[in-house]
Give the backbone structure.
Amino acid sequence: MAGIWIIAERKANAVTEGTLEAIGAGRVVSGKLKMELATVILGNGQDSLPANCSDAGADNIYLLDNPLLLQYTSDAYIAALQYLIKLHSPALILIPSTCNGRDLASKLAGRLKTAYISDVSQIEFADNEIIFHRPIYGGRLLSEVTCRGEKPWIITLRPRAFEKAGAVKKGARIGLRLHISQM
Amino acid sequence: LTVRKITIAFAPLGPSLPGKAYGEHPVHSPFDRTCIHCYTFPMNILVFIKQVPDTAIGLKINAEGIDIAYQDIPWVINPYDEYAVEEALLIKEKFGGNVTVVSMGPDKAAEIIRSSLAMGADEGVHLNDAAFEGSDAYSTALILSRAARLLGYDIILCGKNAVDNGWGEVGAAQAEILNIPCVSSILKLDISEDKKYAIASREIDEGLEMIQAPLPALFTLQQGINKPRYASLPGIMRAKKKKIKVFDAGALNIQPQDVGRNASRISIKGLAYPPARKKGKLLQGDSQTEVKELIALLRKEAKVI
């Protein structure tokens, strides 16, 4: 089932502001495209489900739980995500544009050979197309781009460019435990 | 500053290739790090550089509205790539080796290859083919990775992104294609004495993260890692005499339909100037309400906190 995913970034036992903004942006996109919105949380341990994420408005939460995912490393995160992407084939993956977010997004796009748009500051819809706005030439110009070809398309979102998702509805909690053998 | 140390558990599984023959010893894959003979040989350092319009000047949008107007604009080496050239020269000074600068681009891209040779690089390679024009980041990475395989490598360096369109993907995707570790946005690079691995300090939101990666590996460089040198006069004279190798699609075994504008996963619909800066706002009232209002405005209007 095609869907829109947000790769959550965690700090202590909560998801970051950037993640909530990405969920907010994702909810707008999913409403327009009538697609399911899911948050993907990677981590390890009992406290893997952050408190402020469960009711931030995602339809689904994929929880990837594995000791290797305790700390961000691109190798482990990409291996885990690749497995989940193969299972559920999302259409769009939104990632907060932080140091680790950019690292993950660029490597994931390289692995999947799909479109990657970095540092998006605005998302617009026209004629069944999603248009992404992003600053180029060090912010001197704004560029409007669209993706084509195979999915998932991978997008990183500029911090503070999108409205944060407020607590709107209870998220369906889906815990998916990944075993090392599956990676 | 938090410093965390992580070891990448990554075994380089290079495809078996007809490797570069090092002197008299048998031909094997350039990825084979078990060959004792090879360790005595200098490192092969590849630097990928890009020529970009100088962003210090005012850029204009062209008549079609989907690209910038290219008339009379100065072109420079992407500043992040210049750090990569400098870092390669620093590694060479310490460990010996061969620094090859590679650039994909039209004829004028030869200028930055020449200027890197003047800084002290040993060889220059120009990837030039009309079919490459308009390639997206992944296709570019594919072309560069083919060049890397032809040239052989122990360390690949490039800027963390280009300052033009700046997708920030080419380095990462290239490492994926070559199946080697990639550490992005690094601010420090140390190579072990035996040249078997590197420890790179990578920029993260909380500070720095030290990552150990076995060589061969690719690193993308962040501003501040070093201070690029100026080319010396003898360097400039030497660079003038050097021959730059040119590889086209055929030499790189690239099918023209796999790269270029038609194969691009991205299409640019339009360019715009950012909205003009708004007039400043003067807040009224006592300091208590001013502060409150300021915080609210910074949050809601300026969206900076």
Q: What stands out?
A: The first helix of chain B runs from residue 36 to 39. The helical segments of chain B are 36-39, 79-95, 110-119, 137-151, 170-178, 233-241, 287-300. Chain B touches chain A through 51 residues (CB under 8 Å).
